[in-house]
Amino acid sequence: MQTEIIKIIHENGHFSIAKTEEVVQQEFFIPNLNKLAQQVIANCEPCILANRKSGKREGFLNPIPKYDTPLHTYHVDFIGPLESINKNYQHILTKTFGNPKRIITDQGSAFTSKAFNDYCVEEEIQHRQIATGVPWDNGQVEIIHSTLIPVLTKLSLNDPTKCYRHVDRLQIILNSTVSRSTKWTPFELLTGVQMRNKEDLKIRDLLMQELEKQYLDQRESMRKDLKRNILKIQAENKKTYNKKRKKAPEYQVGDLVVVQRTQFGGGLKLRPKFFGPYQITEVKPRDRYTVEKVGDHAGPNVTATFADLMKYFSH
């Protein structure tokens, strides 16, 4: 009876815990009112779907393992939409370098298609898709895009359909630029030598002969330095990131949860902040989960998500 009274009063306006207690106390005396009010509100479906999660954001930074083998992992994404051009370009990396061990992508339709999945299975490539709404999972390629897109835009202001003409030049610049994380250029890490540009063409072949003798030892040394530098940056980033985070709940298969809406278009600001309920069907590493829709409501039927974008449907 006490719980029902609190529930009726709360549902009149879906008040906060403090406001619900205040209204109840105007008419009733209920022992342990605060505890009961918390329990009622924690299980109120409209509040679960509409209220934002409070407190520190959940989930610590879990850097992707790094390997000292070149071309082990490709971080892949599309940029666009770009201006239409009259050329049908297709750049196939595997034609020159063979297959990577792993590909990391978002959940764009090009990467979730059956054809792409079949290709990865046939070529024995591990395909890892990042959770929706968690772009930092594929941060390596997102960082490149944040540089590439504005530069391409500036270079092709007069004719955006000719942006492809600048891609080769930009690629050379990016591949010959020292990375903050690795302390080396991508070209040096892959080949063991510095990129030869127009100014370098005057250098005698004698230098190349000496470099050839040092090549194998130098390349191995660089790759070890690469791994140390990346691990150092990861440790620093993880420490800074985790200061503002708390441990994520350990959800289990079968738990009922709601999933945060990650896109708000026009007219959606007053829509519920979460979709649900969903049932967890798979527990993945690093606080990732696969969930499946339960019942008839808005939201995708099946999706991958992250603990910080979820909360329990009921307690």
From TrEMBL:
<dbReference type="InterPro" id="IPR036397">
    <property type="entry name" value="RNaseH_sf"/>
</dbReference>
<dbReference type="Pfam" id="PF17921">
    <property type="entry name" value="Integrase_H2C2"/>
</dbReference>
<protein>
    <recommendedName>
        <fullName>RNA-directed DNA polymerase</fullName>
        <ecNumber>2.7.7.49</ecNumber>
    </recommendedName>
</protein>
<keyword id="KW-0175">Coiled coil</keyword>
<dbReference type="GO" id="GO:0015074">
    <property type="term" value="P:DNA integration"/>
</dbReference>
<feature type="coiled-coil region">
    <location>
        <begin position="216"/>
        <end position="243"/>
    </location>
</feature>
<dbReference type="GO" id="GO:0003676">
    <property type="term" value="F:nucleic acid binding"/>
</dbReference>
<dbReference type="InterPro" id="IPR012337">
    <property type="entry name" value="RNaseH-like_sf"/>
</dbReference>
<dbReference type="InterPro" id="IPR050951">
    <property type="entry name" value="Retrovirus_Pol_polyprotein"/>
</dbReference>
<dbReference type="GO" id="GO:0003964">
    <property type="term" value="F:RNA-directed DNA polymerase activity"/>
</dbReference>
<dbReference type="InterPro" id="IPR041588">
    <property type="entry name" value="Integrase_H2C2"/>
</dbReference>
<dbReference type="InterPro" id="IPR001584">
    <property type="entry name" value="Integrase_cat-core"/>
</dbReference>
<feature type="domain" description="Integrase catalytic">
    <location>
        <begin position="27"/>
        <end position="194"/>
    </location>
</feature>
